[in-house]
Amino acid sequence: MIRPVILRLMALRPATLGLVALAVLVLVLPLVISNSFYLDLVIRIAINAIIVLGLNLLIGFAGQISFGHAGFLGIGAYASAVLPTHFGWPPLLALIAGAAAAAALAAVMAWPIFRLKGHYLAMATLGLGIILNLIFRNEASYTGGPDGMAVPAMELFGLQLSRDRQWYWVIAALLLVSVWASLNIIDSPFGRALRALHGSDVAARVVGVDIARYKMAIFVMSATFASIMGSITAHYVGFVTPNIADFFHSVELVTMVVVGGMASVFGSLLGAVLLTILPQALATFEGWETVAFGAILILCMIFMPRGLLPTLAARLGSLRFAVARLRAGRSAGESDS
Amino acid sequence: MMARTSTAPATPVLSVRDLSINFGGVRAVQNVSFDIASGCIYSVIGPNGAGKTTLFNLITGVYVPTAGEILLDGQPVQGQPPHRLARRGVARTFQNLQVCLNMTALENVMVGAHLRLDRNVLKAAFRWPSLRRADQALHQEAAELMRFVGLEHALEARADAMSYGALKRLEIARALAMKPRLLFLDEPAAGLNPRETLEIDELIRKVAASGVTVVLVEHDMKMVMSLSDRILVLDYGKKLAEGTAAEIRQDPAVIAAYLGAGAAGETS
Q1: Which residues contact B267 (CB under 8 A, 6 or more apart)?
Q2: Which of B85, B103, B131 sits opposite A188 (nearest CB)?
């Protein structure tokens, strides 16, 4: 009875299968979770996952590193806090304004950088993140300084988002759309151009890819995306502090990409899950949690340098290959590498 | 056929005039001039370090020349970046492979069609029907090209799991996906066994027969001599000789460069 179903699922592309599995998980989770602490945790994981998806397009697929993505989150978060509070803007307009500001800033900064070769983007974004953090910390009359400020509730089509359940569905939908869109982009002319310039920039250039423009496009996109998610985080939490734009938050996001698996959409999700849960789970170590956290990351990178999901998938793939070979009942004459 | 045999074709697809590049004090290419007629197979030969690959890099925009002119259909293009030249139908392969190992073989070929596709990212994100259809058609086309270069067995392969010889052909398939008018092949037969070399030879003939002008850098003299309509010989960055295979074979300067000055006296 169950065999045909499994066979049909096996026939799907792994990406489609993953998306279906994620959709099922998203639908089932609220039925299982009754505790509001866990619901909150799930929502935070989903928010991180969406941010990391955008960052992975930049880092994993296009090969460009940003150490200032928390800064772009901060722009969105503070746009959504400051503009409605001090200037009476509607939240949705504030979100869009924040996203536009992040896009403009990313574009202005990236323009000269992508004319150069090398890891200048990492350096420049690091600086930008720190500067933004300082601005949020010091412009106390607008931002409340280090203490942060309250963020008014998000309104969507006259409906106020206040309860966790409502937020859950909004963010779950966003997550599914983001995963779907990421998978689509990767498997499109635009996505192939990005991956090609990562694989060999000279090859990409001679087939006609304007690599500076493509790097710029993906950087601006992921910055815009981060800003939007910053706005959403601010509205969801109802409060924003400069910590959202902290350098360590940027590093944490990059770590999620790397641990989960560079250039792996579902790896991003796994990275977000692990690195959001891990600090909570390690709280029992009392004071040693940072050490444990670091040790786990180091071990991950030593034994799974390509990231969790790609490594596991490769292991599974070779296992499946071995099984198929056994079934075929012949030792392979040809090399499998 | 007149254009193929005439020494001064009416409209050369590519003209190079006094091209030079210096890397610091090293004068890698010095005052090189030549014309390539449309539809022919043109080979560039010379000892290691003669400047053949540098010449390719100059013409395809990877390097910017120190001096000289490169005319594509009579229009100067020197100093233009590779992606601009790609738009004008210039394609190339690389001596030291430039394959994107983070992609599948088929995707590498598909990247070659970059300029012919709708690159809109929003349409891509939401699976715009026209874009999906074009991509599916391209899928077929790329598979076709892989068969054309003899990679039918590698349709599902990841690029990083392919042999050296297969990657050489993959680069040719990617270049052909650009539908180029001018194809530069940098040592397509290097590192291949005799049977594979023969297959590449046949492949180049097929490509040229389809109307693409082929420019070849190659060390396999048997292949160069049998394939080429014209041959340019470089030595120490300078043009040593140019002509048909028969002319080059008799040229005392060429014989001297390849076999040593003493041998030149014996054979001529």
Answers
A1: B255, B259
A2: B131
